[in-house]
Every structure is written in C-alpha cells, then in structure tokens.
Design a protein that fits this description.
With 146 residues, the chain is an all-alpha fold. The protein contains six helices and no strands. Helices cover 68% and strands 0% of the residues. Helix 1 (2-31) packs across helix 4, helix 2 runs antiparallel to helix 3 (62-70) and helix 3 (62-70) packs across helix 4 (82-96).
Length: 146
C-alpha cells in the first residue's frame, strides 16, 4: 500500500527532523551562555527527558514522547520501536558527521556496530549513501539560521 509507505516514511523523517532541530537549537542556545564542557554535561544528562517533557506539554503522541526520552538510552527503554531505532541512529550519525559544540568532535563510533543500525539493517553502503545525501542537504541549508 503506497499510502502506508509514504505515511511511515513521513513519520520516520519527522521524528529525525525533530531530534536534529531540537538538539541543534539546544546546543546553540546553551553554547552562547556557557562553556562547551557545561553544554555537553547538560545535554548528556537531561536533553532526552527535557525533550520528552516539552513534547508531552505540546500534546504530542506518546510515541514521540517515548522517542524523545530514550533516543540516547536504548538500554533503558522498555519498548524499542522502529521509530526509536531510527532516531537513535540518526542522532549518532549526525554527531559523527561533525555536528559539534565549540569545534570539539565526538569520539568516533563505528556506525555499523550500533544496535540500532543492526536492527534496522543499515550497512556501510547505506551509511555512505546517507552521508552524501545529508552533506548535500546541510550544505544547501548552511546559512539558514544566520
């Protein structure tokens, strides 16, 4: 059913987009007021829970809230949905591409070895394809918030 596939694709990418925009906005706001180390510690400790609270307050479906809370902590989630796996992978994928705070890059991760990549059957060839597409999109949007 083509409608089902389009609907699911849109939902999956809406989740990814929310995660990326939320993290970028949080990093931008916090980085203007404090040091990189403080920003990293704040994000590491609370951005999932904070995002979940915001999504709940705005009336989002429980699935969005669940993804918001657990996208960095698959091991703590009782239910691991396809949507959670997609956002978990996208989160790490984007950070590995250079989404940094204060020019400090994250520790390298073998994306193929992520639990989310394995469960979603994402291999090196697909990661390479995604990298090219994301780089092209990021280059096109480079000055959008300036």
């Amino acid at each position: 059913n083509i409608f089902y596939n389009v609907k699911n694709w849109f939902l999956d990418w809406t989740l990814v987009l929310f995660q990326i925009i939320g993290e970028l906005m949080t990093k931008e706001i916090i980085s203007k007021t404090t040091s990189y180390i403080d920003v990293k510690e704040t994000l590491d400790k609370s951005h999932g829970k904070f995002g979940g609270v915001i999504l709940k307050r705005w009336g989002f479906d429980d699935m969005f809230i669940h993804v918001g809370i657990y996208h960095d902590e698959l091991d703590k989630a009782e239910n691991i949905s396809k949507e959670l796996l997609i956002v978990h992978f996208a989160n790490i994928f984007v950070n590995q591409m250079g989404n940094t705070i204060g020019g400090v890059k994250p520790e390298p991760v073998n994306l193929e070895e992520l639990e989310s990549a394995k469960l979603l059957r994402i291999d090196k060839a697909l990661i390479d394809q995604l990298s090219e597409k994301v780089k092209t999109s990021l280059d096109a949007c480079e000055n959008i918030f300036i």
